[in-house]
């Protein structure tokens, strides 16, 4: 399928109800309002052409950008392209999901996570924390710098409540991810979660809630799934 055909297919899949929901969550125009499940039907067409995936992200259309993230090859995307992607994320969802998940599966996962976390730009920092959270969920423990991960847990404990709105959300996610996927640091993550307590995030006029890290990690423990890595974080 060509770029124009993909865009038309997305337009046909969109609905005003879904579009309205996305906008309530912070989405910016342009977008069609396509449900993720419907969008996934197009992935097989885009995966055949990585240039097409990059072109879709360039469109600035949220639905097309999300499809690009589902379809692009994270192993061959360049660091420069990822830097371009994070600069183009204009609300928290593409920063937290599309950009971060592709970055986490790229050869530059840790490097970009660390650089982005310290960004003065809120959405870039969101991508940084989310990239690291996703990275620890798929990377074998021996590939992780445990001292660095531990230092970020401490940073969350000490600074989360004074951080920017959506950065607080993904810092909380980072604690959950470390607790769930890095067995050697689960107890430390639980201690940080206990110290942090409830994290307040302005989620706008939505039903979204910030998960309580202590409860979330406890559920993973109860299912005996601590340390079970994911095969992919792109979804």
UniProtKB/TrEMBL annotation:
Coiled coil: none
InterPro entries: ARM-type_fold (IPR016024), DNA_alkylation (IPR014825)
Spans traversing the lipid bilayer: none
Pfam families hit by this protein: DNA_alkylation
Protein name listed in UniProt: DNA alkylation repair protein
């Amino acid at each position: 399928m060509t770029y124009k055909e993909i865009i038309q297919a997305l337009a046909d899949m969109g609905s005003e109800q879904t579009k309205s929901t996305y906008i309530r969550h912070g989405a910016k125009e342009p977008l069609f309002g396509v449900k993720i499940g419907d969008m996934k039907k197009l992935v097989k067409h885009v995966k055949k052409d990585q240039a097409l995936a990059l072109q879709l992200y360039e469109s600035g259309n949220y639905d097309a950008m999300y499809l690009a993230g589902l379809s692009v090859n994270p192993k061959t995307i360049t660091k420069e392209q990822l830097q371009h992607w994070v600069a183009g994320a204009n609300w928290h969802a593409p920063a937290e999901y599309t950009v971060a998940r592709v970055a986490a599966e790229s050869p530059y996962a840790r490097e970009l996570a660390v650089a982005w976390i310290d960004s003065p730009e809120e959405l870039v920092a969101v991508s940084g924390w989310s990239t690291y959270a996703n990275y620890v969920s798929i990377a074998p423990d021996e590939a992780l710098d445990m001292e660095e991960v531990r230092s970020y847990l401490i940073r969350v404990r000490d600074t989360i409540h004074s951080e920017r709105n959506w950065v607080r959300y993904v810092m909380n996610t980072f604690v959950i991810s470390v607790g769930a996927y890095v067995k050697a640091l689960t107890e430390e993550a639980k201690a940080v979660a206990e110290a942090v307590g409830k994290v307040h995030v302005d989620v706008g006029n939505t039903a979204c809630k910030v998960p309580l890290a202590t409860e979330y990690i406890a559920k993973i423990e109860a299912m005996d799934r601590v340390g079970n890595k994911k095969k992919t974080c792109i979804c």
